[in-house]
Design brief:
Order of helices and strands: EEEEHHH
Largest sheet: 4 strands, antiparallel
Shape: globular
Oligomer: single chain
Strand order of the largest sheet: 1-4-2-3
Radius of gyration: 19 Å
Structural class: alpha+beta
Strand content: 5-15%
Length: 140
């Protein structure tokens, strides 16, 4: 059984237990991250394994555009803590109950994340090489 606490993150507060942050302001509301956002909720766990599993569930919800329908505010949209809890608890519980599918889903997401990082690193190297070639060509 998952046991976690969700509350508003305060700048400067450090957490000793496993935790993750969820952006709560702007069009990327619901985006999970290990490092704190200025405007975010923090989810605190009892175990690192629960933290990892919930991170990928939150990531899936964010990538599937689950949160925009729950945003409020006319100028800068934001996600209310109450609304986040009301939607996140049941959704995460139902996704965790599909254990084998969830494990495969997490493995696939981790692999895709790794491949994306490798791809971005390759793009960076290509751009660096392009700069070197252009620099050598222009300094003849």
């Amino acid at each position: 059984m998952l046991n976690f606490t969700i509350k508003t993150h305060r700048v400067g507060v450090t957490y000793t237990k496993p935790h993750l942050f969820i952006l709560n302001k702007g069009m990327n509301s619901g985006k999970p991250q290990k490092e704190p956002f200025t405007n975010s909720f923090v989810i605190i766990f009892q175990s690192e394994e629960d933290c990892e599993n919930i991170f990928w569930i939150a990531y899936s919800l964010w990538k599937s555009n689950f949160w925009p329908q729950h945003l409020v505010g006319s100028v800068i949209p934001f996600l209310r803590l109450h609304d986040f809890k009301k939607e996140f608890f049941p959704k995460s519980k139902s996704l965790m109950e599909e254990n084998e599918a969830q494990v495969n889903h997490v493995k696939t997401l981790k692999l895709l994340e790794l491949k994306e990082k490798q791809f971005l690193e390759n793009i960076k190297l290509i751009n660096d090489m392009r700069r070197v070639v252009v620099h050598r060509y222009s300094n003849r």
